[in-house]
Amino acid sequence: MAISPLAPPAFPDLPVIDGVRFSSLAAGVRYAGRKDVMLVDLVPGSAVAGVFTRSATRSANVLDCQAKLGGDPFGPAAIIVNSGNSNAFTGKHGDGSVAAICAAVSRSLGVDQKRVFTSSTGVIGERLPHDRITAKVDELTASLSPTGIADAAQAIMTTDTFAKGAGVTVDVDGKPVKIAGIAKGSGMIAPDMATMLVYIFTDALIGQPRLQGIVSALNQETFNCITVDSDTSTSDTLLVGATGTSGVDVSESTAFVTGLHDVMLDLAHQVVRDGEGATKFVTVNVTGAADNDDARKVAMAIANSPLVKTAIAGEDPNWGRVVMAIGKSGAIADRDKICIRFGDILVAEDGWIAQSYTEEAGAAYMKQPELAITVEMGLGEGKSTVWTCDLTSRYIEINADYRS
Amino acid sequence: MAISPLAPPAFPDLPVIDGVRFSSLAAGVRYAGRKDVMLVDLVPGSAVAGVFTRSATRSANVLDCQAKLGGDPFGPAAIIVNSGNSNAFTGKHGDGSVAAICAAVSRSLGVDQKRVFTSSTGVIGERLPHDRITAKVDELTASLSPTGIADAAQAIMTTDTFAKGAGVTVDVDGKPVKIAGIAKGSGMIAPDMATMLVYIFTDALIGQPRLQGIVSALNQETFNCITVDSDTSTSDTLLVGATGTSGVDVSESTAFVTGLHDVMLDLAHQVVRDGEGATKFVTVNVTGAADNDDARKVAMAIANSPLVKTAIAGEDPNWGRVVMAIGKSGAIADRDKICIRFGDILVAEDGWIAQSYTEEAGAAYMKQPELAITVEMGLGEGKSTVWTCDLTSRYIEINADYRS
């Protein structure tokens, strides 16, 4: 599959996190000859926080992770992820597959089963051939390496056209703290939670409850603000592991929060940039709404509208469809106070097209690969920013025969 | 543009409604050489009921119609509709255009301006060249005819590939009552109101408040149960005119309600059959939900899911995406009680694929042009049925360059 035109030039050089090791290999879960399983282990004492899909039909893996997060935070931890099969809607078989994989990892790595976290991503509703994974666990354990993160990012891809990684080193009281993360996600991306798989690691020293609080809050302004197609995955998982190996306590550090935010937002944007069939990266800003909830309703209505997204694909400055989306959003709106901009171009104000606007200027703007649509509602202080991509025929092609 | 493969074989022979006349012509509102304006007049005493879009950015025409519906029900009435320009988001100019058109029709037909109803459909945000319409009003008046309804149905089309009409003659206490309607709609079709233009006429004798009550109730189970793309128009209008010329009082007639229901549902289905790019007509049935609201949430989540709709386009029996849509709907769901059928084929039960299901049977079923997806939630008595179409590359093509 061709790499998205919006992809970064290369996988980044990520900081190596002391206390975290990665391995990956091809287990043949669904397809032969491609890496499809990754294993991560974390040193004893690592704190693990997570955020998961709220889907009512979420996978056995997600349910298992949610149950484990509140448990004993001591001892080593492990994360094992497969692509090719999501183990979702597989009835009691799904629970059995998770248990079998956790048992194998526990045995091989000497990690308490309650500290083994699993994710599966891929086709829904087909029984996970977990024997193919458990048969490879010892091999995965034997090849664990602190520098295996780029290969691990490859192993968790499904319809992704590029592997996604982001990292920073932040300064906390004069001492460096490292953060590195990977993600997968391309379709079935919607606002209600981190609709994808994301694994972020840091050598920061921080308690699990505090880490969980930070991760949950940052999730609201990063992964929960992206949408590709308004569909919500049954498997979405974000896990953050903090090893404490830097010895730097970040509990009260704003630098750490900012660094983690930047890594999460970078990964979230990379998922949009790999939106199925995407050719445009679109930032939707809404300001002046009655409140933040209304602002988000308007931003999401624009970002999810098939008519807005197809117009963007066609490089058509069709601001009338933006008006339509504002109208259907459910937010309070006053037609004559709405102001719309494409980039810096004032398009509409006073309930009508702006006097200064020309179709030529709008059309020229739409040819850029990165676009910003800004709506000023003129009512209050509510604001919201979300990120999305266009809707192209390629999305249809990818999803009309994904399984075959 | 090629006619939808789901179109009926021909425009139906509609009953001629005594007291209603139609005319239509080409006024060059946007394109030259195609009929784009229709005029209807109704005899004195006709009751007019209506239902409109709830969009916060609805057009000047919709606001004007809404203000007039509660007014004096006596005297003749008129409806004038143009295609090519929606007169939506045109600021104060839009109100002026509506007033100018109403004044011209009032003068030409001798109808009180408060009984002139207007609709405009087409591009949003461009000033309506209403002079082109007012210049033709006398010509429209001169050519009014009781049999002009089929031509009128042509005049209101935009991206429609076929003209839409439906009619019945019902028996009320041994006497015939006629109902005939036309509609336009193809894209920007979503659940929140009759997202299109619909005009229905009957010679029934009925007071306006009673007619309004029946129309509003029937709208909930017809036009509000269809979705093409989840986008809500700024112009949607359903007007029903009852002339009383049959002399048959239908105030308490269930036959009349049933007949009107059938005409409304027929027109609603025709809009779905002309969904932009549609190749499949899909009925989504949900039963056994906790309540009717939950049932509708699930049905609409399935019907609006881009991933479900692209799978249908690809004739892929991808029931996992139906599970995904149930999960994201917000309705109460118990994975292990959900039962899914494609037509009569049991696909999933007990939280997993059905033992009897074969991919071959599912794939063969999906090749049909008319499909039914049924979900039994296993929780309560809530139920809902909605109708939709698939999402194809043709939808993208149509909407990526509709304006150019």
UniProtKB/TrEMBL annotation, chains A, B:
Can you tell me where the transmembrane regions are? none
Record's subcellular location: Cytoplasm
Q: What is its main location?
A: cytoplasm
Q: Where is this site: Cleavage?
A: 194-195
User: Which InterPro entries does its entry note?
Assistant: Arg_biosynth_ArgJ, ArgJ-like_dom_sf, ArgJ_beta_C
UniProt site (Involved in the stabilization of negative charge on the oxyanion by the formation of the oxyanion hole): 121-122
Chain residues that bind substrate: 158, 184, 195, 276, 399, 404
Under catalytic activity, the entry for this protein gives: N(2)-acetyl-L-ornithine + L-glutamate = N-acetyl-L-glutamate + L-ornithine; L-glutamate + acetyl-CoA = N-acetyl-L-glutamate + CoA + H(+)
Q: Which UniProt keywords apply?
A: Acyltransferase, Amino-acid biosynthesis, Arginine biosynthesis, Autocatalytic cleavage, Cytoplasm, Multifunctional enzyme, Transferase
Q: Which Pfam families match?
A: ArgJ
Subunit and interaction comment: Heterotetramer of two alpha and two beta chains.
Annotated family: Belongs to the ArgJ family.
Q: What does this protein do?
A: Catalyzes two activities which are involved in the cyclic version of arginine biosynthesis: the synthesis of N-acetylglutamate from glutamate and acetyl-CoA as the acetyl donor, and of ornithine by transacetylation between N(2)-acetylornithine and glutamate.
Q: Which PANTHER family match?
A: ARGININE BIOSYNTHESIS BIFUNCTIONAL PROTEIN ARGJ, ARGININE BIOSYNTHESIS BIFUNCTIONAL PROTEIN ARGJ, MITOCHONDRIAL
Q: What is this protein called?
A: Arginine biosynthesis bifunctional protein ArgJ
Q: Which gene encodes it?
A: argJ
